[in-house]
Amino acid sequence: MSTKAEKAYMGRVAAIGCLICRELGYDDSPAEIHHLFQARSNWNICPLCSSHHRGPRGFHGLGQRAFEAMYKTTEAELLALTIEALNG
Description:
Layout: H1 4-16, H2 19-23, E1 32-35, E2 45-48, H3 50-54, H4 59-62, H5 64-71, H6 75-87
Antiparallel strand pairs: 1-2
C-alpha cells in the first residue's frame, strides 16, 4: 500500500508526461507509472504512456534489452530525466 507521500510523488511524476514521447518530439502524452529496476519502490519510477509502457513497442512488450536498444536509453537514464524534469 502506498503512503500519502508516495501517492503525491507518483502524481507529480505522471504529470511530467511520457519521457519517450518527449524525447521523440511528440506532444505531451498522458503517462502511467513505470517502476524501474524491477523494484516495487514507489520512489524509483518514471512516466511512460501506455504504449511505451505496456504496448508491443513498450518496455513490457519488448523487454528491457530490446526497449533500451530501440529507444537508446536505459532505466537509469529515464530515472535521471525524471528527476531533472521534477526539479527543472
